[in-house]
From TrEMBL, chain A:
Subunit structure and binding partners: Heterodimer of an alpha and a beta subunit.
Organism name: Chaetomium thermophilum (strain DSM 1495 / CBS 144.50 / IMI 039719)
CDD domains reported in the protein's UniProt record: FTase (cd02893)
Catalyzed reactions: L-cysteinyl-[protein] + (2E,6E)-farnesyl diphosphate = S-(2E,6E)-farnesyl-L-cysteinyl-[protein] + diphosphate
Cofactor binding mode and count: Binds 1 zinc ion per subunit.
Pfam families reported for this sequence: Prenyltrans
GO biological process: prenylation
Family, similarity comment: Belongs to the protein prenyltransferase subunit beta family.
EC number: 2.5.1.58
UniProt protein name: Protein farnesyltransferase subunit beta
UniProtKB/TrEMBL annotation, chain B:
Entry cofactors: Mg(2+)
One GO CC annotation: protein farnesyltransferase complex
Gene3D superfamilies, alphabetized: Protein prenylyltransferase (1.25.40.120)
Protein name, per record: Protein farnesyltransferase/geranylgeranyltransferase type-1 subunit alpha
Keywords: Magnesium, Prenyltransferase, Repeat, Transferase
Length: 595, 330
């Protein structure tokens, strides 16, 4: 079933995922175990833990031993010094991907010869900024303070010192993910206390100290697909009484779970009839969908229902949407300031756009979004509020559909703000300045970057002075950092499964969806090809009608800290569902006359 | 606070609507979940019953004291139920109920549910509805109402310092005195100062210069931001504010170069010579250098950010360096 391979998204619309020749297959052959993308769509029995982890009998364990023999002695102290920050040129990432298995943590780990002899030079690092660069100290100065095992001073942190050199021994973890930031203010406030607590909670996971996980050589645990799939299927089932608080958000559960399952490689078409019945029970004659039966139509729940219908696919699902009524309902939500209200008030005075023919649904939308960009550069939910990651994605997605984002946003400031959302050592994104990292912003903030990159790639983006902005030839954020945060900190390690905000928080459907969306974005690279005159035979009308085409590639630059089997499926940068689902529903409705 | 009328406010604990003579005439509409519905909730009996009665009275478009109490009952069980809130507002307006009473009730609900959108939307509807009546009573009535709203906001801010909606600069300053990293407070300060109708141009984006802002206000805000930045130079909130003020005022970033240099010593020097106390200062310096065409120094600042001081963002700093090259060509 090639369609289920996590990284292979060939679809019938011809928007094929192009893989650089030979690269992916090579990594696939080297890493252990069968490609999970090749397994049947339905969840089979979960392999027993012993079969999974036996270092001798499992192929993975055998590879581990064969490739990293334990040295007798004399390399012990050397090994401590190799908190590796570099990828070795010419050495395929896959060669050091085998997983170390639970219970088999070596008592002594070897100094891997190639680590000892090869380091990335500063020149190389400059040429390849998307990789985690070694600190200049990595080559020029002794970078790691090596202490004896019984030296309790190893935890005393003074700016550049790596704490606890024992536990992450041998893992290739760049020190920015294991150390406190270089610059820290002395002033203590509520915010700094919470930030420090968060870093403290994340560090054991980031350093490979947590006993629960099996870490690979990068100190990154594998994606626990089976457990997450089970969790998500449960969330789609009967929910206990305490979920009453979510009674107005049930459509979201449909989208979150179906989207997350899809990204994990599951076939969700078996849910089609159930989604259709559930969607109908939430649908109002006036066109929108409410949070449940008898609830008023709401913009957010309607969005979620439509995406859920697109995810299960099929004409019967698409036909649930009453497009004419929904169009009228959307128009009734239009506001004089160009924005929309999310729900019609039950009061007659609700101000709406006057139907005088001077405006349509999209009038003033770009300008409204322009006024939502704040002095910080980010986007707020309404003019004059605080910039917030979720609105950045909504605004960019909206502009990507309407217009060129740089026509109404200050793109350099937006990029500055988005970039500042990523923290070290956590690696994840926060939603606002001075707030904590949260796995869901892997999507809300991380998902902005493909849109930003497309915006820059066209060459049409300028700053406020009209100066052209350079294309983003390298990743604008640390994909490695985000991947580490997601796989190390956001996976619920209990039997429960699912993904979460941060260590110490419970997993839920919302975070499972958006954490995986962020992972998908970090693992893939998108390119937007604007339709050209040549492609349409110079016919201006055809050019206008042609949709820009998104092409997706697995992202293979920089360190690949996860095994190829942990690559989840790509999702469309704007619609956040797989591209073929987007194409299928668009084609269905485009083929119709009128509504 | 005066006691609220019991026929309008308050839920009798443990009483079943089906056994309540007041509801005798209503035939509840039970919830019909379709076969195989997804994410179906096993509703507790009390909630399911209340919702069944709600469906019935909403369908009949009934507006009455008992409907108001029913909405309170449901809101107590599920304050995120936007439909119930909108129906409640419709009842308040249809029955022409006292807005101060409703606000008094809402204050209690708000303090119990800090992170809830509905409480603020409901308040918004109430205030918009109330204001025309209030204006007829004259300016003192408006002032009195404003004072009571501010008093409530102080209460809720004491509970949740992140929910800053106070219309008072002093309240914001108190929040920033408590925690200079409170970005919501910084953000709200910017709104208060630069969207004040008395001295701002309406409709401008936050990043557009506004000639209507008086220079003394700009000076005051620059000084305020600098003083706060000195307390915690690695907190970005103050730097974002400072930069935002300069852009709003149409001033060059170089006007704060001396201040920014306080946090960066020996840029590019070997070993211990380079001392950076704020990555945000270094970032701003890079912009200041670029602003006056000193490409080499700007490049050095950005390179050092990516190499040493803020390595997680190296991809961004490298992109900025490429931008310098384009800027130089132009």
């Amino acid at each position: 079933m090639p369609g289920l391979r996590p990284w292979d998204d060939r679809d019938r619309a011809g928007l094929a995922l192009e893989v650089a020749g030979g690269v992916v297959p090579r990594t696939l052959t080297v890493t252990s175990g069968p490609d999970p993308g090749l397994r049947p769509a339905t969840t089979g029995p979960i392999p027993s833990q012993t079969a999974k982890t036996d270092p001798i009998t499992s192929p993975r364990g055998a590879a581990n031993i064969a490739r990293f023999p334990i040295a007798d002695d004399g390399t012990w102290n050397n090994a401590k010094q190799y908190f590796i920050t570099s990828i070795v040129p010419g050495f395929p990432p896959s060669a050091y991907m085998p997983l170390r298995t639970k219970g088999s943590r070596p008592q002594k780990r070897v100094a891997f010869p190639w680590k000892m002899t090869t380091t990335t030079t500063p020149q190389q690092a400059q040429g390849q900024p998307s990789r985690s660069p070694p600190s200049p100290a990595a080559t020029a100065l002794p970078r790691v303070t090596v202490t004896d095992d019984d030296d309790d001073g190893s935890d005393s942190v003074d700016e550049e010192i790596v704490a606890d050199p024992i536990s992450n021994l041998g893992f290739m973890i760049p020190d920015i993910f294991t150390q406190l930031p270089l610059i820290r203010d002395e002033l203590v406030t509520k915010t700094s206390i919470e930030q420090d607590e968060t870093v403290e909670a994340c560090l054991p996971f980031l350093r490979g100290d947590d006993d629960f996980f099996d870490y690979n050589e990068h100190g990154v645990p594998e994606l626990d697909r089976e457990r997450h799939i089970r969790f998500l299927r449960q969330c789609l089932g009967k929910l206990p009484g305490r979920f009453v608080a979510a009674d107005a958000s049930r459509p979201w559960f449909l989208y979150w779970c179906l989207s997350a399952l899809t990204m994990l490689g599951e076939d969700v078409s078996s849910y089609r009839n159930a989604v259709i019945a559930t969607a109908r029970s939430m649908q109002n004659e006036t066109g929108g969908f409410g949070g449940g039966g008898g609830q008023l139509s709401h913009m957010a729940t309607s969005y979620a229902v439509v995406l859920a219908l697109a995810l299960v696919g099929g004409e019967e699902a698409y036909d649930v949407v009453d497009r004419k009524a929904m169009w009228k309902w959307l128009c009734s939500l239009k506001q004089p300031d160009g924005g929309f209200q999310v729900c019609l008030d039950l009061t007659p005075e609700s101000p709406a756009w006057k139907e005088d023919g001077s405006a349509n649904l999209l009038t003033g939308v770009s300008d409204y979004i322009r006024r939502c960009q704040t002095f910080e550069g980010g986007i707020s939910g309404q003019p004059n509020a605080e910039a917030h990651g979720a609105y950045a994605f909504c605004a960019l997605g909206c502009l990507a559909l309407l217009d060129h984002p740089s026509s109404c946003l200050d793109i350099p400031r937006l990029i500055a703000w988005l970039s500042a959302r990523q923290y070290a050592p956590e690696g994840g994104f926060s939603g606002r300045t001075n707030k904590l990292v949260d796995g869901c912003y892997s999507h809300w903030v991380g998902g902005c970057f493909p849109l930003i990159e497309a915006c820059l790639a066209g060459g049409g983006a300028t700053d406020s002075d009209g100066t052209k902005l350079p294309p983003a030839t390298e990743s604008l954020y640390s994909r490695e950092g985000l991947t580490r945060y997601i796989l190390c900190c956001c996976q619920d390690q209990s039997k429960r499964g699912g993904l979460r905000d941060k260590p110490g928080k419970m997993s839920d459907a919302y975070h499972s969806c958006y954490v995986l969306s962020g992972l998908s974005s970090a693992q893939h690279q998108w390119e937007l090809d604007e339709p050209t005159d040549a492609a349409t035979g110079g016919d201006g009308a055809a050019t206008a009608a042609a949709e820009p085409a998104w092409t997706v590639f697995p992202y293979l630059d920089g360190p690949q800290v996860f095994a190829p089997k942990d690559r989840v499926r790509p999702i469309h940068p704007v619609y956040a569902i797989p591209q073929q689902n987007v194409c299928a529903i668009q084609q269905y409705f485009q083929a119709k006359q009128g509504f | 606070m005066a006691l609220l009328k019991p026929e309008l406010y308050g839920v009798r604990e443990g009483s079943r609507l089906a056994e309540d003579p007041e509801w005798e005439d209503v035939v509840p509409i039970a919830h019909q979940e379709p076969e195989g519905a997804l994410a179906a909730i096993a509703y507790p009996e009390e909630y399911a019953e209340a919702m069944a009665y709600l469906r019935a009275v909403m369908k009949a478009k009934e507006h009455s004291p008992r409907c108001l109490r029913l909405t309170e009952h449901i809101i107590n069980m599920n304050p995120a139920h936007y439909t119930v809130w909108l129906y409640r507002a419709a009842n308040v307006f249809a029955l022409n109920l006292s807005i101060p009473d409703e606000i008094a009730w809402l204050n209690g609900v708000a303090l119990r549910n800090l992170k809830n959108y509905q409480i603020w939307h409901h308040r918004h509807l109430l205030v918009e509805h109330y204001y025309p009546q209030l204006s007829l009573q004259g300016p003192s009535a408006i002032a009195e109402f404003a004072a009571s709203e501010q008093s409530f906001l102080r209460d809720i801010l004491a509970e949740d310092t992140k929910t800053t909606t106070s219309a008072e600069l002093a309240a914001i300053e108190t929040l920033l005195d408590d925690d200079v990293r409170n970005n919501s407070a910084w953000s709200h300060r910017f709104f208060l100062v630069f969207s004040n109708p008395a001295h701002s141009t309406p409709g401008l984006a936050a990043s557009e210069p506004d000639p209507k802002v008086p220079q003394e206000i700009v000076d005051r805000e620059v000084a305020y931001a600098m003083a706060k930045i000195r307390l915690a130079p690695q907190s970005q909130s103050g730097w974002n504010y400072l930069r935002g003020v300069l852009v709003k005022a149409g001033r060059k970033l170089a006007t704060v170069e001396g201040f920014t240099n306080e946090f960066v010593k020996g840029l590019g020097e070997d070993g211990e010579g380079e001392d950076v106390r704020s990555t945000h200062a270094l970032d701003l310096l890079a912009e200041i250098y670029a602003e006056r065409g000193d490409k080499d120094k700007a490049d050095l600042a950005l390179r050092r950010l990516g190499e040493k001081w803020d390595r997680i963002r190296v991809g961004y700093w490298e992109w900025r360096r490429k931008g310098l090259e384009i800027g130089a060509e132009a």
